[in-house]
Amino acid sequence: MKYTEPMLRDFALQGKTIIVTGGGSGLGKTMSRYFLQLGAKVVITSRNFEKLKKAAEDLSQETGGQVLPLTCDVRHYDQVKQMLEQAVKQFGTVNGLVNNAAGNFISPTERLSANAFDTIIDIVLKGSKNTTLALGKYWIKEQIKPTTILNIVTTYAWTGSAFVVPSATAKAGVLAMTRSLAVEWAKYGIRSNAIAPGPFPTKGAWDRLLPGDLKEKFDPAKKIPLKRVGEHQELANLAAYLMSDYSAYINGEVITIDGGEWLYGAGEFNQLDKIPPEMWDRLEQMIKNRKK
Ligand code: HXC
Ligand code: NAP
């Protein structure tokens, strides 16, 4: 058994229809593929229809599942409502939402225009709000239950991070929304959870966060206690579990999947892992000698 293998039992998502925003690339595409393999119907959405159409063809060929590509810029509530209407028309009902679409790039904050900052907030925070509000209203009105919202955030949603300040600000808001609605909407059978991934290589993220030779200079694997980046299937396993009824009692949780990365940055003495054993011998002697 390996962590790169699919984990859930066959048909674990049978009967579910799940909207995955940003489902045409990167982690969204990986999650969509696994949801389809587990029997869900999947709606993939983003701004670029050509990309979505190609992704939908790939996914249905690979899995034999039903996947519907729909253009929708999550920044616009009217587009989200239209997308939902089309999804319901095609599949009859929708009972899952994965807020995965995002925008991000590294930049010193003082270099950002007001529009650059807004662009990220609009995609990540306002976009997640738009889809969540549209789906929540629909589920409550139509009394559809159980239903599930899964928000893909990051570990810097709670630590913050320099040089990606709009993204950190927006993801923190999404995490607050996750926890707030987990309580408020539980009575309607709506669960809200989040996943906080560490580095999982995707073209979208790597081109914007580690451009050029930054990937070598700041190799993310080096600052992860497990000394590797994430494998897409292990994130898909976690997402499928949280979208399935197996996780029916998990509500309002954010699950970190980062090989220990954020805690490594947080622990006061964690950097001492760079000290070689011979030096520990000397240090131990120095400390013990203090008694004399
Ligand atoms: C400074 C920049 C910039 C940069 C864009 N802008 N890139 N400013 N440095 N590198 C400014 C523009 O000049 C413009 O401001 C404003 O931002 C909007 O840019 P547009 O290109 O017009 O926006 P748009 O076409 O909507 O594209 C949005 C985008 C783009 C976010 C800029 O990168 C995109 O489409 N991203 C989607 C996918 C993505 O980002 N994936 C990565 C997610 S990774 P002005 O003032 O000039 O108009 C992730 C991982 C987190 O979230 C955790 C990792 C561990
Ligand atoms: P990605 O492939 O660039 O995914 C982002 C997706 O969002 C794209 O499919 C993009 O499609 C879509 N999108 C962007 N703006 C949109 C908008 N306005 N409306 C609708 N869709 C929009 O990057 P990724 O790495 O897979 O990221 C997926 C998620 O994981 C994000 O939430 C990200 O923050 C999170 N995450 C990733 C990592 C990582 O290491 N990869 C780590 C932590 C968290 P279009 O361009 O076609 O619109």
Give descriptors for this structure.
292 residues; alpha/beta; Rossmann fold; 7-stranded parallel sheet; binds hexanoyl-coenzyme A; binds NADP nicotinamide-adenine-dinucleotide phosphate
What does this structure look like?
The chain has 292 residues and is of the alpha/beta class. The protein has one domain: Rossmann fold. Helices cover 47% and strands 13% of the residues. It has eleven helices and seven strands. It has helices at 26-37, 49-63, 77-91, 114-142, 156-159, 165-184, 203-209, 214-217, 232-243, 261-266, 277-289, and strands at 17-21, 41-46, 67-71, 96-99, 147-152, 190-197, 254-257. A seven-stranded parallel β-sheet has the order 3-2-1-4-5-6-7, with helices on both faces. Helix 2 links the parallel strand 2 (41-46) and strand 3. Helix 1 crosses helix 9 (232-243). Bound molecules: hexanoyl-coenzyme A (HXC) and NADP nicotinamide-adenine-dinucleotide phosphate. Hexanoyl-coenzyme A binds at residues 102-105, 107, 111-113, 115-116, 119, 154, 167, 199, 204-205, 208-209.
